Amino acid sequence: MAKGKAKKKKTSPAASNGEMEKLKDRMNRANIISFYLRLFVLQEGAKETDRTEIVPVPDECSGSKFVYELRVEKDEEWRSHRITVGRLGEDSGSKSMCYYVIFGVYQVIKIPPDRLTDFNEYVKSVKKESHIVTRLAPMECIVPKISFIMTMAHALENTRKLNADALEDRYIEWLRKNKKFQKYLMIGDRFCYFMELADNLFLSHVLEDVHDKSGKMLEEATRYPDVIWEPYGFEDRYGHGEENEKLCAAIQNLYDKCETKIKKLLEGSSFSRTVRPYQMKNWFLVYLGDGKIDENEKGLNSKAITGLNRLLTNIMKSNEKTVNGYRRLLREYINKRTFGTIKLQVEGLTTNLLDLLAWLRKKGVAMRDLKPDNILVAGELSDYPLFLRSSEEYKLGLIDVETAVVFKKGKDGKIEKPQLGGTPFFATPSHLFSNELIETFFDDVSEILHLQDWYAVVVMTYMMITGEYLFIKTAQKLALVQRNLQVGLKKKKDLPEVMKDINRTFWLTAIKEFQIRMNAHEKILKTVKITIPLSAEEMFPAEFLKDKIRMLEQVKEFVISQKVFEGDKIQKQFIEAPSEKIRRQINKWEKGYKKATPKKKQEIVKALRELESMKIKMERLKAKMSAYTLMEHMFTVVVEAMFNKEWR
Fold this sequence. Notes:
By secondary structure, the chain is of the alpha+beta class. 54% of the residues lie in helices and 11% in strands. It contains 23 helices and 16 strands. The chain has helices at residues 13-43, 119-127, 130-136, 146-153, 164-177, 203-210, 214-223, 231-238, 242-266, 271-274, 277-288, 302-318, 320-363, 435-441, 445-466, 473-490, 495-520, 522-527, 546-561, 568-576, 579-590, 598-620, 627-642; strands spanning 52-56, 65-74, 77-88, 97-103, 105-111, 141-142, 186-187, 190-191, 193-196, 201-202, 365-366, 375-378, 395-399, 405-406, 529-531, 624-626. Helix 9 (242-266) packs antiparallel against helix 12 (302-318) and helix 15 packs antiparallel against helix 23 (627-642). The longest helix has 44 residues, at 320-363. The protein is globular and about 105 Å long.
C-alpha cells in the first residue's frame, strides 16, 4: 500500500469559531484582571514597580464565574482585594464581548471587537447611546460612563453639586489634559466601556436562582438513601409505571458495578477496613445527585478522594442514559414540589416584561437584542428574592443599548439604520436584513423592527417558566441563514428566491419546534396566569380582555342613561375619567361646586358615587391570560408578519 500524506482533519467553521471565542474570552479575562490590579495599585497609593500577585480562589469559581485575590506589597505589607469576573451573553448579537465584574461594586464591561485607541473617537462612541436613554426615560437604562470608572482612579474636586451629565463632561475635559490617566479606560490595547450595575440584578442571574436545581437535586438524592433500593418506595415517590420500574432496576445494577470498582480501588489499602457499605452507597448517591465527594471526607486521604472522584465521574459518563434518566426524574419531582413559589415569581416577571415591551413600543424603540443578560431587575435588594412575588415591588430596565434603534421615522422620513446581527436563541432572519432589504419584502419596516422584540419576549417567557430554551434547532439555522444571505448577495442571485429559501428554512423549523415544546409543557404553561399590565392591553385583541370590555360597556350604558351627564362631550369625559377624577368631582359638588337645588345636587352626587364604584371595580379588574395563550398569540403575530404566505 502506497504511503501518502495523512489527510488533514477538517475543522467545522462552528468548531473553529467556538475555539476562537474561548481564546478571546481567556485573553479578555486576563486583561481585565491586569486592569483591575493596576487600578488597585493606584487606589492603594503604591508604586507601579511594587510587587504584585494575582491569586485564583478556585473554591468560589463556578461555570463562567472566576474569583481572584489581587495583592500588592506596599511598605513591606501585603494588601489585597477580591475580584469576581464572569462572561455575559456568550452567544451575543452584540459585536462586543461583555463581562460582569464585582470590584467593590457590581459593574459591566464591554470590550469592543475593533481596536479603539483615539480618545476623541472613544468619547463620541460613549455618547452615541444617550439619545436612546433620553427617549426611554424614566426607564432605567445602564449605559457606559467614563466618570464611573474614573471616580475609582482619581477623585475630582468640587463635584458634589454636579449632575451625572455635568460630571461626565468634567472628567472628559480633565482626561484631555491629563492623558496619562486615559490608560485607566483601556483594557488590553483598546478603550473599553464601563457600566455600573449598582443595586440592580441581571435577569439572567435571577432566572438562575429561580430554576437552580443543583443543590436541591443533591439533597433529594441523599436525603432518602433507601428509596433506590425499595422499588415500591421509588415508584410511590417519583411516579408509577414501567419506565420508572426499569429505571430503578437500572440504578441498582449500576450501583452493584460501582461498588465492585470502589472495593477494587481501595483494595489492599488501610481504607478498605474502615469504609462501610452505607458510605459507598452515599458516594454513589452524591454523584447521582450531580455532586462530588468532599475533600474532607472522613477516613480518606486526599489521594483516595481524588481516585474516588475520578472513578465515579467516569462511571457516570459511561452510563449517561441511566444517570440522565434519574436526574431528569429528580428535576421533574423538584419542579412539582417547588412550582408554587416559581409560579408567583415568573408570573410577575412576565407581567413586567410585557410592561417593558409596551414602553418600548410607546417610545418607538426596538432593542433588537432583548435577552436576560441585557435586562436588569430593579428592586429592594434586602427583600430579594421575596420581592419577586409581586410585579409591583420591582421594575425591569435595560443594560446597554448598543443594538437599539428608533423605529419611528425621523424628520427626513427615514428610519435609523440598526446594527445587523442578533443572539441566535432570541433572533429572527430579519435581524440580519438592512432596512432597505426589509422594505423590499415587508409592508412596514417599523413593525418588523418592533416585532423582533416580541419574538424575544416569547422566548424569554418560555425560559422564565420552564428554565429551558424555546428554540434550539431554530437557533442553529440562523448561522445557515446568515451564510446563505451573504452568498446570495455576493453572487447576485435572484433576491426574492434567496429570501424565500432563507425564511422557509428558518420559520418552518421555528413553527415545528414551537409546537413540540409548547405541547411538552402545555400543562404548566396553562397553569401560569399572566396579568396583562394596563400599558400593554392595547397590544392584544379585545377577546383577551373581554371582562374589562364588558365592564366598560356597562360604564358607557350607565353614563348615557343618567340625565345628570348631559351632552356627548360631558358623557365622553366621564366615560374615560379614572375613579380618582370622579372622586374629586364628588368632593366639589359636596362643597357647593355649582349652584343647584338640594335635590339636583343629591342626584348628581348619587350618580357620581355609583360611577366611582364602577370605575374602581373596573380598575381593580386586571386582564389575565395563561402563558400558553399569551405565547401562542404573540408567536402567531410574529410569524404572520415575518413569514409571507407566498414563501411557505
